[in-house]
Amino acid sequence: MIAVIDYDAGNIKSVEKAMNLLGQGVVVTGEPGRILEADKVILPGVGAFGDAMANLRRTGLDDVIRQVVSRGTPFLGICLGLQLLFERSDEAPGVEGLGILKGEILRIPEKEGLKIPHMGWNSLHLENDGRLFRGIEEGAYVYFVHSYYLKAEQERIVKASTEYSVHIHASVEKDNVFACQFHPEKSSDVGISILRNFVELKV
Length: 203
Known about the structure:
There is one protein chain. This protein is of the alpha/beta class. It has a single domain (about 1-200), classed as Class I glutamine amidotransferase (GATase) domain (Rossmann fold), CATH 3.40.50. It is built from six helices and 13 strands. It has helices spanning about 10-20, 30-35, 50-60, 60-70, 80-85, 190-200; strands at about 1-5, 25-30, 40-45, 75-80, 90, 105, 120-125, 125, 140-145, 150, 160-165, 165-175, 175-180. The strands form three sheets. An eight-stranded mixed beta sheet has the order 2-1-3-4-13-12-11-8. It has a three-stranded mixed beta sheet with strand order 5-6-10. Strand 12 and strand 13 form a beta hairpin. The longest helix has 12 residues, at about 190-200. The protein is globular and about 50 Å long. The model has no long low-confidence stretch (mean pLDDT about 95).
């Protein structure tokens, strides 16, 4: 069973639909017990970093996520779910992220001819042999919606990157923790293949 964490941060239906398409049993829940007993856990999300962290702390789900990670359960953060895994964000100065991974979330710099938020399809540069990207071709296109981007402290955890005004760490992996800034559930066949790789993981 795959648990999709519900913490009032949106983007849940499309993730649930993608899991169903892959034939996976899925439960959308904010109940700690159901999250902790799941075989794999997904943290989706769109919206503001500060509000999302406040929701996680208010419900105790921040500690539940840390327990999931410490148990070795495969964990996938998507979009805002990636950003929350890190230490801090320009979007919410003074608000601590989950700090499960080291790095910071920065505002995408203004650049002539580019709109912010970044909304649309960008190609990925694959690196460091990411398990989510097995069978995915270099330069594959995926769908992004974001105004802030990840700069990871450790380059070796970065498995995919893209360029949009700046060099963006688009996907990371460390042990049982995986995360994508883009939306695999909205990225057509490439995205479904990435999610299938997560579903089939043996950590």
